[in-house]
Specification:
8-stranded antiparallel beta sheet; disordered N terminus; Pnp Oxidase, Chain A; alpha+beta; about 250 residues
């Protein structure tokens, strides 16, 4: 069926450890001492420890789901823009944001990103599935300040709109003070890739139902000028380059 399987056996320890099977997940250092082993129990053949594949996935998505437990004990999942800078995940938001302030405390946090590449059409509804790439990151966020904060914000802006930082004014002191910038090192992660064909039983293969794949392509970007844009202001290079790259 159309599900993204991510079932694990999680072992907890008081000290960080290196995961014994780097093929299925990567865990080094002491970024999350409570998680030292992630063993997939569903379709482990889809797991990958390839860092290049992880980087490619991160290069193709800018939205992540960030999960944590709030100060009342309730689980929370928040979608947010995320970019990679200095081998860390960067998120930003208002200093007045309750969820940002919560993860800024360093609580255990899980971040997931997913790209759906298409649909694997099987000869039955049961065997049909999504073609996807999905990663889950485990760790905690820390607060960036001073020059590190400004550099990270510039990296975030240029990731979303390449070259835009050079075209606009710098952020004011007030704007920087109102913005919280957090980072999580890319140290403990798990990558899952489904890009094959359906695995139909022989009796379905012998039948008359069609099977194959539908691969999704990128949607053509559409540029819309702001309704209050003054006449005579042309599209900047950052915008034309962004549309060309998509």
């Amino acid at each position: 069926m159309f599900i993204l399987q991510y079932d694990y056996v999680i072992e907890t320890h008081s000290h960080a450890a290196v995961v014994t099977d780097a093929r299925v997940t990567h865990c080094t250092g002491d970024t999350l001492s409570r998680v030292s082993n992630l063993t997939p129990i569903r379709m482990p053949e889809l797991m990958s420890g390839n860092r290049e594949s992880l980087d490619q996935l991160l290069a193709e998505t800018i939205v992540a789901n960030i999960a944590f437990v709030d100060d009342t004990g309730n689980p929370i999942v928040i979608p947010s823009a995320v970019v990679v800078h200095d081998d860390a995940l960067i998120v930003h938001g208002s200093t007045g944001s309750r969820w940002m302030r919560r993860i800024a405390e360093g609580v255990p946090t899980c971040v997931s990103v997913t790209v759906v590449d298409g649909v694997i059409v099987a000869r039955s509804a049961f065997e049909s599935s999504l073609a996807y790439r999905s990663a889950v990151f485990f760790g905690s966020f820390t607060v960036l300040a001073g020059e590190a904060k400004r550099v990270a914000l510039d990296a975030l802006t240029n990731r979303l709109i390449p070259g835009r930082v050079a075209e606009v004014r710098t952020s004011t002191t007030r704007e920087l003070a109102a913005t919280l910038v957090l980072q999580m090192p890319i140290a403990t992660w798990s990558l899952r890739i489904s890009d094959g064909w359906s695995e139909d039983p022989e009796n379905d293969v012998a039948g008359d139902a069609w099977a194959g794949r539908v691969d999704f392509g990128a949607r053509a970007p559409i540029v819309k000028a702001a309704p209050d844009l003054r006449d005579g202001i042309a599209e900047p290079l950052s915008v034309t380059s962004l549309t060309a790259s998509h």
